[in-house]
Amino acid sequence: MVREDLAAPAQAPDDAWTPLGPFAVPWKAVRWYGDEVVRSILSWYWFALDQSRHPVVWVSQYQLYIDYMLCGEIGPTKIDEWKPGRLTPHLDLLAVSFQTRARWFSKILKESLRHAGHQALYAFCRPQSTALNLHTGSLALPWCPNRLLWVDEWIFRSCPSGVRRTSKAIEGLPCFAADDRFPKVVLSCA
């Protein structure tokens, strides 16, 4: 077997992406996470990927979460129960690590996609990123290269040398950061 270059992003298989079907909010996900949380995350996802002509690359759960935040959203929280991040007062003071917040977001995204019947290829690999030099959970997506560059820029502002597997720098990344280059999330009515 040919050994992958560990310093290079993994290559997504040619058949990794299945185009999105019609937008629908799955009631099974809503039952667990609430309509606003599921609708917001899926609206963001569909808007970013519907009719995408970009090459399919591995995009990490961290990059997806940061992209969501840069669109002006605060990720979902699970302190006592699942709720929109905007309803968790003083989230920045609760000392919830970035990894935990990204994991909450990723869990809801993957579960919502599963309940919506969308097959997304998931793997533990090195994502398409210059700032994230580690292997992590990633989805094979036709994501906009500019958005990936802007996410890298955002990471480099907080972690100038980037993030490696043993780096603690990622733990303290901010809870919220809107960027005007990213489209605002428009909730779908479907």
Strand content: 5-15%
Distance between the termini: 47 Å
**Count of folded domains:** 1
Helix count, per DSSP? 5
Strands ordered across the widest β-sheet: 1-6-4
Secondary-structure element series: HHEHEEHEEEHE
Rg calc:
16 Å
**How many individual β-strands?**
7
What is the 3D form?
globular
Low-pLDDT parts are: none
Report on the structure:
The protein is α+β, with helices and mostly antiparallel strands. The protein has one domain (27-172). It contains five helices and seven strands. It has helices at residues 27-33, 35-49, 61-70, 98-116, 145-158; strands at 57-60, 77-78, 82-83, 122-125, 132-133, 136-141, 163-164. The strands form three sheets. It has a three-stranded antiparallel sheet with strand order 1-6-4. Strand 2 (77-78) and strand 3 (82-83) form a beta hairpin. Helix 1 crosses helix 2 (35-49). The radius of gyration is 16 Å and the shape is globular.
Task: Please give a handful of descriptors for the protein shown.
190 residues, alpha+beta, three-stranded antiparallel β-sheet, two-stranded antiparallel ribbon
